[in-house]
Amino acid sequence: MRVSLDWLRELCPFDADSSRVAAILTGRGLTVDALEQSGSDTVLDLDIPANRPDCLGHLGVARELSAALGLPLLDLPTVPSESTALSITIADPVLCPRYSASMVSEVCVAPSPDWVVRRLEACGQRSVNNVVDASNLVLLELGHPIHFFDADAVRRRAGGDPAKITIRLAREGERLRTLDGIDRILDRETLVIADDLGPLAIAGVIGGADTEIVESTVNVLIEAACFCRRTVRDASRRLGIDSDAAYRFARGVDPEGAPRAQVRAAMLLTELADGRTTGAVTDLYPGRSGPARLTLHPGEIRRLLGFAPETEAIRQALEALHLAPQAAADGALLVRIPSWRVDLEREADLVEEVARHVGYDRVPSHPPTSAPTEPPQRISAMEESVRDLLSAAGFHETVGYAMLAAAEDGDWIATGAPQGVAIANPIAETLAVLRRSMMPGLLKAALSNRRRGIDDVRLFEVGRCFVALPGSSAAPLEPTRAAFVWIGAGAPRHWSRPARDVDIYDILGLVERAVAALAPAAELRRVDCGVPGLRPKESTGWQLANGSFVGRAGRLHPRAEGELGIPVYVAELELDSLASVEPGWPRHQPLPRLAPVTRDLSLVVEGGLTFSAILAALGRIDAPAPARFEAIDRYEGPELGPGRSSLTIRVILQPFERTLTDAEIEGYRLRLVETLAARLGIGLRG
User: Which of 130, 203, 579, 649 has its CB 3.0 to 4.6 Å from that of 272, i.e. a possible disulfide?
Assistant: First the structure.
């Protein structure tokens, strides 16, 4: 919200400059996002919290400055007790707790004076004419929306007789052409201001075109009211009307502020449009209730803030905020909640008010008196680790909806898995069940990027999925998963090398690198991916030794890949399964002083045998020094026979204490060859 500094000074006579004012308001929870110059005035761009509708006008902001600086607030005029002869009926006091109306006659519609134009422009609004501008000035100053009707137009609808105004729910199918020129069809949940012929305005949202202020307007009917927040909010959403009035009514306005808004509107019409007013107001207040009261205990302040200010400081804070504290039993304070503070509902709210006024920077810091009772969850650290790893690999994190359409994730769920958890009251059919996989949302994000011309897409998401327990009404399981999608370049494009598209080995390597970083002690074995969304020959799954499923990766099935029109590689990891693996501890290894010894084994491998199986067999052989194995070449040709390939494995021995003898090295090589032949039927290539 844009706030004029000059206007604030008129309501609260302070000398502080704009930077000081911005610091004060930000410290009190009204964050100042920017300072701008508008002519000789300074404009503050305020971020008003949703629970502070009292600050949606200059008066509310000035009230905060008054409390902070200890300065008086401008005493605005109140309404006289004299009543008009207007006939007004409120059908439901719950929907309209208060409605007031008054008349200003003999107005002259004309352009507004320069100071009004400048003030409105500083607050982000344009000038229309002096009458309409008067209503906008009241809104911006007091934060209380009002509406002007052309009183003669209202009277003409009644055949020249005094109009009878009723605040009621619309009848099904009633129509109203609103100020934006659109014919609206109303339903029975929309609150309207009506006469005997039908609706004149949609209460708290927008007025009707038949009674709007025009150049020929002479007499003005002023409406200042208080409407049910939910009714206004729902009507605004149903009709797609986002007006300044609806924004404020939906958050709550001060019912005691309606008379003040009436008086201020009449004063402005008299000043700007030469109108005449008797000051009489018809004010119906069937929803009147006494001020709410709450009790504040010093012990609650200490419990929530970690310290307790002096009793006098607490009292001064409450008095500055117009809470009128009174002594109660056991050192507590009984406070009266001002009508404009609709956000103060419980004792904790009062504690927050004291903290805001005293200053959060005055809350002392103390070291914890005891260690945490529970160690941090390993899964939380794992979530951050996988985020770091994927970000370092060039992936961007997304946050998707946890809801999707029924069966939308069917391609990513194994056969026989439980159905998705249905949402009792979904906001849309496309958001009817909780997700069992993150892949549908991630692929939508990838498709959106592709449609916007992004050729190389690397996205990931870390979050929870929801798995129902078969035959049980208990809450679903919420496994934590990491999913990622990779499209386009397999490596960053650079002029020094030819471009290369991502392939299956890139995605598999990324998964295994992630597992090695998250759970170094995990022993994986490959299994079928188990879902129809991936190509059978270009996908795999992983399990732990205990059978727990770890994840899957591969290329999208053609039917899923069709809309993207390019190879798409995806993966999804079960972080809960990896978190169950004993973390193990890294061990210090001194840098070797001796050169490594290498030997190459050129093997003839039968089809279907995996490199991981070969590594597992080689790793069981006792070595004379720490050993590692690398696949350095692979060849397929007719001379090897159908289904066979030649695989060259480099054996690297790294001695640390002494140089290995030729006999030790050759003996180890022979044991490797014998083991491969005996266990896997692999021989050396001739």
Answer: 130
